[in-house]
Design brief:
The protein has 178 residues and is α+β, with helices and mostly antiparallel strands. Helices cover 47% and strands 16% of the residues. The chain has five helices and five strands, in the order ααββαβαββα. Strands 2-1-5-4-3 form a five-stranded mixed β-sheet. A hairpin with an 8-residue loop joins β4 and β5. α1 runs parallel beside α5. The N and C termini lie far apart (77 Å). The model has no long low-confidence stretch (mean pLDDT 91).
């Protein structure tokens, strides 16, 4: 009887683990599909303004987040003025990300108004992804905000978001070099 109880508990435990694994796999596939859909929008950007509009207005629906902002530090390399761009003091981005991190995910966060502007009170979780400085742009970040405090957490992988930011940066450089 003891052996049978132990085996039944193991089977129950394995079934629960299997269910969790299936849920995580499906969730990951959904996230991957959303990231791919966002990347596939990028070649449609006609110019810099259109690119910024797509990222800040279309991507939140595609990616199921509440806010996306594009931030750049003030620098000699000027970024064209645009309503969807937030300009930050030099050094702020490394203050948020550190010098080494390409991305940071945080849940249950008090969002920074300098990043999210009017959306700040909504934001309870965020992903900050570095946009490296180039010949065409100063150092920047893509900031993804969610009202769900568990939407972004430190233990999550950042590969897909870093891929999305790299695709955005490639299109940004292409449009700014014209």
């Amino acid at each position: 009887a003891i052996l049978l109880d132990r085996l039944q508990n193991e089977v129950t435990s394995l079934n629960e683990a299997q269910g969790s694994l299936i849920y995580a796999s499906r969730s990951n596939m959904t996230t991957q599909a959303r990231i791919h859909a966002a990347v596939l929008c990028l070649p449609e950007a006609r110019d810099f303004d259109h690119l910024c509009h797509m990222v800040c207005n279309d991507w939140p629906q595609i990616l199921q987040v509440d806010s996306i902002t594009i931030c750049f530090e003030k620098d000699k390399k000027k970024i064209p003025e645009q309503n969807n761009i937030r300009l930050l003091k030099k050094g702020i981005i490394n203050g948020f990300l550190g010098h080494e991190n390409a991305a940071i995910l945080r849940g249950n966060v008090k969002a920074a108004e300098i990043i999210y502007g009017p959306a700040t009170p909504l934001i309870k979780a965020e992903a900050l992804i570095r946009i490296e400085k180039s010949d065409h742009n100063p150092l920047g970040i893509l900031a993804f905000g969610s009202r769900d405090e568990a939407f972004f957490t430190p233990g999550q992988g950042t590969e897909l978001l870093r891929f999305l930011a790299a695709a955005f940066h490639g299109q940004l450089k292409s449009l700014l070099s014209k």
